[in-house]
Amino acid sequence: MSAVKSILFKDPASTESARSILRVVILLTIAAAAVASRLFSVIRFESIIHEFDPWFNFRASKYLVKHGFFDFWNWFDDRTWYPLGRVTGGTLYPGLMVTSGAIWHALRMIALPVDIRNICVLLAPGFSGLTAFATYLFTKEMKDSGAGLLAAAFMGIAPGYISRSVAGSYDNEAIAIFLLMFTFYLWIKAAKLGSAMWGGLCALFYFYMVSAWGGYVFITNLIPLHVFVLILMGRYSGRIYVAYSSWYALGTLASMQVPFVGFLPVRTSEHMAALGIFGLIQLVAFVDFLRGQVPSKQFNTLLRALVILITVVGFTGLVTLTVTGVIAPWSGRFYSLWDTGYAKIHIPIIASVSEHQPTAWPSFFFDLNMLIWLFPAGVYLSFRQLRDEHVFIIVYSVMASYFAGVMVRLMLTLTPIVCVAAAITVSSIFDTYLELDTPQEQEEDSESKKSKKEKPKEVGGFLSSKAPFIGIYSITSKVAVVGAFCVYLILFVLHCTWVTSNAYSSPSVVLASRMPDGSQHIIDDFREAYYWLRKNTPDDAKIMSWWDYGYQIGGMADRTTLVDNNTWNNTHIATVGKAMASREEVSYEILRKHEVDYVLVIFGGLLGYSGDDINKFLWMVRIAEGVWPNEVQERKFFTARGEYKIDHEATDTMKNSLMYKMSYYKFPSLFPPGQAQDRVRGARLPAEGPVLHTLDEAFTSENWIVRIYKVKDLDEFGRDHFSVSAFEGGKKKKGKKAGLAGRAPGKKGRRVLRI
Amino acid sequence: MRLLPILTAFTSLLSLSVAQKASNKYQTFVDLASSSKGAKGVVLLNDQLFGEITGPHRNFSSAILFTALDNRFGCVLCRDFQPEFDVLGNSWFKDHPNSDGLFFGVLDFSVGRQTFQRLGMSTAPILMLFPPSAPGSEHQPLKFDFNPSDVTPAESVARWITASSKHTVTIHRPFNYAKLFTFVGGIVGTATLSKLAYPYLAPALYSRNLWAAISLVAVLLFTSGHMFNHIRKVPYVVQGRGGGVSYIASGFSNQLGLETQIIAVVYAVLAFSAIALCLKMPRMESSGKQKIAVMAWNLVLLVLFSFLMSIFKMKNGAYPFFLPPLIA
């Protein structure tokens, strides 16, 4: 046995170079797997930008490579938020665009002129490989390189991260998670070594992170929290002081160079924790220094009193500054994380976003599978060792679990730490059960293979493990446990692949459905409609739609929009909401005043596409009500029994709202009389469809998902549009039969329904 | 605010010019408002006074609350709204001791039965704003729409009155001394208590076990969807089909209170099995016992993970994977 072992497993020291090569190969394989698993959408559909926000980032990247960096910096975009415009250069996080711009230039330099779109589409998968590497480095600092490799593999394929980084998902998170993990790695390194160089590097990557994603506030608060907990535990040391001071001073100054951030780090509550801890650590360092010089007991008491006094004064000062308004209070988005009812009452525009909803447990399991129950075990193992860096894992775990529970979107920040903790657990289990040596019974300490684990810290109770480490005797036990965990790991890989392929690889711009014979049918209504806008409307046409579609219209149709996904002006959004929710007379005024040429609505009633505007309508009403409580009232859209109905029971306010009319205009004509059916709401519509006076139907896409209306000009004779249509309706009475036979030429006729 | 004296002068001028009678009536109500038996600034009306305050030749507005405070009527909304209305009347009275052309009145059903019948009112509370009577045509009173989920109705009413009349109503809520005292008392009490209990609490405060337990419970709670329950206020269990109690909500983005607790316990046991496997097992001295224990924990892990997968499959019908022995 031992002879075989000595042949197979040489002395660890002598195989170091072979193992490091193996590590590199494994990491490269993990990176390749991470990239490959994100390419489903490219293979199934095409190389296309997904969702909503990425369309803006793509447009901005195109602007950057076309006009150069300085123009990009000073970009005033007059094609959005008409008529206000948007100071785009100063109100975005430029990190993502600059990254892809740099890659574009670098590739051109080596004579590889790649289209910027392909760089944008493939940026997120590329960075996911780097994230796996950063996770490896981070976990290696926590345990060993074995755990690091496992963590990298988990991170590479965990659906919680894939959800935001598939090919085409060209969003800030694409590079931000890599930066998050790498910054944390550098921080742990800095805190371990007490090195100003690592602290400075950490600050540098923190700066990159600040320039890339608003979620940098997570780092801004987590590192101070780590330091604070360490101080409370009495673990203050010169290393922590050097690391934190260098990170904070350099990182804050650097982050203030991003125009969108500017003076926020000294003016808002989100950043006050970091500033406060910076002050505190100076104080602690000072006291620590003095204590070394003057060892008198009275003096120590005096010092302690002084520290408490200064802390209280500092804290009161902060509170006063906040109350008097010098320091801005928590911004609504962050405040709603603590007071979970806040957003719903005060900022409906935040509450309306689906990714800001709380997370139900199936989502956790869906995104993390078995990692979610290995996670607490990893936290427990961190508690057992509890070196300074393990405190970081614990603090990160608790905070990130809370945030992920409150907001689905923040699952993204939880995923890395779950992967790390789970990897620590799995690797501990493998360490124990993959040991070939079998201990001899009754013979204590015969082998000192794990000298570290042999003398566990003497902690009683819950974390107790006073008995010495012996090992596993039976080969059967080893095989059973290792076998079971291998099965779980394989299951995990299957789960991740299935989730990625089924849930997270749809571009949402293009929908896929199955035909009765099982073949795939692509529904391409969005691009059809946007392309129609691009080809058939004047270049300066203004399109009004709900803000969700603003970025897509800007990116695909290249037309001016009123509102878009950058929700910086609530009143303007509420104006659009009011136009949608009001009667035609009121809406027409608003449309004319904003020089709107076309109105675009999304309607899923024919196809059963549930993300349409009628389902979002209540949010429009709510947001409009927030600004005009007298003119738009949510309750008037509910029936007497408090139901949201669109059929014949719908309230008059509902039936007369512009949104309702635009959605169902001529819809009943698709069906036999009285049979019109809305497939999303499962309701039968009144036989008589709504009548539009001030708008003309301009375009309806193949499956009716996108409907575009042209706003009528003022009447030539100065009449209002209602009397015009009444007049024309009266005149046409004679020829009514002829009018009913077909719809106006140029529009699509009745179609065969296929679902 | 500079407008107010002018407004007052204007109203008084108007009242002089219209009729001496109107001026008398106005003064009556000013007196009534200031010497009200209820809240200051709120006129307690009866049938006759209601007739006067809404009668012809009036040069003032009045916001009148029709209510039914008596316990017999069981009008919860009335009783909830009454203090808010008092705050309204009070605030107006504080700013305008002479009422300045706006009165707040309450007509309770027990003293104003006839009026309720005459106006055909069958529900309460109803808040109406009577504008001044214009010469010639009578202005129709405006009705306020109550929003049951409103947290600060007084402010909403104030906004409504401001928007629909020439008066600007600002709300002054009385300073809540009780709250301040509770707050200060709470801080002092906590400080004293922690000072006294410190010698006993210190070991616990520095106990790694305690913090580990707290952190793990927090992590388990949050990852099993507790915050969702808290925010959406989901029921603990619901009545299932066939009269039974159903523990598991159907649907992927839905859950029940008990369901999350089951999940949290499953996660906890799974995590503990993993810990036991990697920490406890290799420290057992007897090889026979170790073998049995390893197999037992391994089995617990397998069965519970399989149970978890089957629950998940129950929630998400399209999920293709399962783990024996439990196959849903």
From TrEMBL, chain A:
Pathway: Protein modification; protein glycosylation
Biological source species: Arthrobotrys musiformis
Membrane-spanning ranges: 21-43, 91-107, 119-139, 145-162, 174-207, 213-234, 246-266, 272-290, 302-328, 364-383, 390-408, 479-500
GO CC, alphabetical: oligosaccharyltransferase complex
Family per similarity comment: Belongs to the STT3 family.
Every Oligosaccharyl transferase STT3 N-terminal domain range: 22-421
UniProt keyword Lyase present: no
Function: Catalytic subunit of the oligosaccharyl transferase (OST) complex that catalyzes the initial transfer of a defined glycan (Glc(3)Man(9)GlcNAc(2) in eukaryotes) from the lipid carrier dolichol-pyrophosphate to an asparagine residue within an Asn-X-Ser/Thr consensus motif in nascent polypeptide chains, the first step in protein N-glycosylation. N-glycosylation occurs cotranslationally and the complex associates with the Sec61 complex at the channel-forming translocon complex that mediates protein translocation across the endoplasmic reticulum (ER).
InterPro entries for the chain: Oligo_trans_STT3, STT3-PglB_core, STT3_N
Reported cofactor(s): Mn(2+); Mg(2+)
A Pfam short name: STT3-PglB_core
UniProt-recorded Gene Ontology molecular function terms: dolichyl-diphosphooligosaccharide-protein glycotransferase activity; metal ion binding
The keyword Glycosyltransferase belongs to this UniProt entry's keyword annotation: yes
Boundaries of every STT3/PglB/AglB core domain copy: 543-592
Protein name, UniProt field: Dolichyl-diphosphooligosaccharide--protein glycosyltransferase subunit STT3
Keywords: Endoplasmic reticulum, Glycoprotein, Glycosyltransferase, Magnesium, Manganese, Membrane, Metal-binding, Transferase, Transmembrane, Transmembrane helix
Compartment annotation: Endoplasmic reticulum membrane
Reactions that this protein is recorded to catalyse: a di-trans,poly-cis-dolichyl diphosphooligosaccharide + L-asparaginyl-[protein] = N(4)-(oligosaccharide-(1->4)-N-acetyl-beta-D-glucosaminyl-(1->4)-N-acetyl-beta-D-glucosaminyl)-L-asparaginyl-[protein] + a di-trans,poly-cis-dolichyl diphosphate + H(+)
Principal location listed in the UniProt entry: endoplasmic reticulum
Superkingdom assignment: Eukaryota
Biased composition (Basic residues): 745-755
Gene Ontology terms: biological process: post-translational protein modification; protein N-linked glycosylation via asparagine
EC code: 2.4.99.18
From TrEMBL, chain B:
Transmembrane segments: 180-198, 210-228, 262-280, 292-312
Top-rank taxon: Eukaryota
GO terms for MF: transferase activity
Main location: endoplasmic reticulum
Signal peptide bounds: 1-19
Any one annotated GO CC term: oligosaccharyltransferase complex
Key word Membrane present: yes
Subcellular location: Endoplasmic reticulum membrane
Membrane topology label: Multi-pass membrane protein
Pfam families with a match to the protein in the record: OST3_OST6
Assigned keywords, A-Z: Endoplasmic reticulum, Membrane, Signal, Transferase, Transmembrane, Transmembrane helix
Keyword Endoplasmic reticulum belongs to the record: yes
GO aspect biological process, one term: protein N-linked glycosylation via asparagine
Gene3D superfamilies cross-referenced by the UniProt entry: Glutaredoxin
Similarity field: Belongs to the OST3/OST6 family.
Role noted for this protein: Subunit of the oligosaccharyl transferase (OST) complex that catalyzes the initial transfer of a defined glycan (Glc(3)Man(9)GlcNAc(2) in eukaryotes) from the lipid carrier dolichol-pyrophosphate to an asparagine residue within an Asn-X-Ser/Thr consensus motif in nascent polypeptide chains, the first step in protein N-glycosylation. N-glycosylation occurs cotranslationally and the complex associates with the Sec61 complex at the channel-forming translocon complex that mediates protein translocation across the endoplasmic reticulum (ER). All subunits are required for a maximal enzyme activity.
Protein name: Oligosaccharyl transferase subunit ost3/OST6
